[in-house]
Every structure is written in structure tokens, then in C-alpha cells.
Fold this sequence. Notes:
Layout: E1 3-5, E2 20-21, E3 27-28, H1 30-33, E4 38-43, H2 49-66, E5 70-76, H3 88-97, E6 104-106, H4 111-116, E7 120-121, E8 123-128, E9 133-135, H5 154-165, E10 176-179
Helix pairs in contact: 2-5
Amino acid sequence: MASLExxxxxxxxxxxxxxxxxVDGKHYNLASVKGEKGLLVMFICxxxxxxxxxxxxxxxxxxxxxxxxxxxxxxxxxxxxDYPEDSFENMGRVAREYAYPxxxxxxxxxxxAKAYGAVCTPDFFGFNHKLELQYRxxxxxxxxxxxxVDARRDLFEGMLQVARTGGGPKDQIxxxxxxxxxxAD
Length: 185
């Protein structure tokens, strides 16, 4: 389980469309999840300790960002052959157990993760209303353990700025997490 950091935000990079199956039986693309003021695309999975440490904070932040006009979607791109906890069936179980307030979709071919340049779970991509990248940083100071309850909410504050101004913060701290589990070709 290699820990990786996300690259620096490539401001203005345009979101790439997708059409992925959700655990709720529906398919999702950018238009179906984009909010009036932007979109948060998250690459997460079920087994990663970094994701598990912040799962409830992600849920909290997505709910609060929705009130500000920011839509959200979570994409699982890991190859579940070596990580059965990340199977589509288990994705559905986790989404129901935690009452995910966002679509949880499977990138079975891993093409979406590759197109986005996703490197780890969690990996956050925050787009403005024009679907231009404005945030590529961490949720907060959490690692494999949750940060203190009063930790600065980097992602939430950054996406609030995106909702209000269309632009993200100049300084962003990279997210860190488990590497995407790529298929052996």
C-alpha cells in the first residue's frame, strides 16, 4: 500500500465527461451531478485507511457544499481482484451503510481515473461552474487517522471560495492516500 500525494492544482483544466454506473442502478455523467456553482469529483474506495479516516467528514462537507450549489460524485477506480472490499457489491453496501449523499460510481475500466490523473484515494478535484479545475488538495490534516475535530477544513473552505468567486485558493496542500490499485495489463 504505497502512500502518494496528489500533484499541484492545474488551474483551469477542464473536467472530462464520463458515463459510469452507480451503486443505485443509475448511470452518471458530469451534467447529471454538476451543481449550479461547481462540482466535486472524488476518487475514493472502501478499503483505504485514509478514506475510512475521513469518510464521515466527506459526507458532512458534501452535504454542506450542496447547500452552496456544489454537486458531488465519488468514483471508485481500484481493481477489486486483489482488494475484494472494493467490489461493486461492497461499494453498494458501504454507500447504504453510511447513507452517502452523493452518487458512488464504478470506473471498472479505470479510464476515468487515468483521464483525470487520479493517483490516490482520496483524491479530490474541485471544479467551478464552468467545470474548470480550481481545487486539488486535501480534505483536512487527516492521514490514516482523523485529524482533531477542530482541524481546518481545507477542502470545504476551498470549495466555498469556488462557489462564491469561481476561483480556488492559490495555496493548496496536496491530498495523501493509498495508491490507485491499477489493473495488471
